[in-house]
Amino acid sequence: MTIRKRLPARPFRIDRAVIALLVLLALLAGGHGWLKAHPEHDPRAPVDLNGPEGWATSMQLAGLRGDPVQCRQALDRAGIGFTALDPMGEGACRRDDRMRIASDAERGLILTPTMPEASCSVNAALHWWMQHRVQPAAEDILGSRVASLQHLGTFNCRRINGGSQGRWSEHATGNAIDIAGFTLEDGRRLTLSADWQNAGNPEGAFLRAVRDGACDAFGTVLSPDYNALHADHFHLDQAERGLGSFCR
Question: Are strands 176-184 and 146-153 parallel, antiparallel or unpaired?
Answer without folding.
Answer: antiparallel
